[in-house]
């Protein structure tokens, strides 16, 4: 399967390496190709290429949104909304407002989460909110000294969620916790905010969540 990633920051770069490590062909979409040239050379993988948002969206049979949350719908528009139709789309974004510095402000509300906004924007996409509650490196290497974390996901398409869950386990996650439809992505986004608040308070950025059931 070919994977297109929209977003050239550390999240997009990390996920690109993770997919390539599993044998997927990957194209990372960016507004500025020069931003990724050094990274691509250092990665030195024949499985990974770069291009525009439109290139990545056309290339991928499955897509990943790894853009700044507040800019995600604009990135989709630039890529071409029709290119998302019928595809699994991993939404790794968070509704964060950095306009007043750090820590960022939470820019969503219940029943209008960023995940829901994106799903309404591309209604025929099989959107799965996932990988938004940890740092970029943990997404594809979920092995902490104190154990393996659990990944929380949300989405309306069961087959798409199953694919994401299987992907997560290949990247070392303990388990994948399905909390329901895309409307529940609000709780994943608030989890991300909790992760961020803890990080700024303690200057610690390798923490993750685990669900203890008994």
Number of helices: 8
User: Strand share of the residues?
Assistant: 15-25%
Task: From the 3D structure, determine the CATH topology.
Answer: Rossmann fold
How big is the Rg? 16 Å
The poorly predicted ranges are none
Strand line-up of the largest beta sheet: 3-2-1-4-5-8-9-10
Considering DSSP H and I runs of 4 or more, what fraction of the residues is helical?
25-40%
Report on the structure:
By secondary structure, this protein is α/β, with parallel strands linked by helices. It has a single domain, classed as Rossmann fold, CATH 3.40.50.720. It contains eight helices and ten strands. The strands form two sheets. It has an eight-stranded mixed sheet with strand order 3-2-1-4-5-8-9-10, sandwiched between helices. Helix 7 links the parallel strand 9 (150-155) and strand 10. Helix 3 (53-59) crosses helix 4. The chain is globular, with a radius of gyration of 16 Å. It starts with a strand and ends in a 12-residue tail after the last helix.
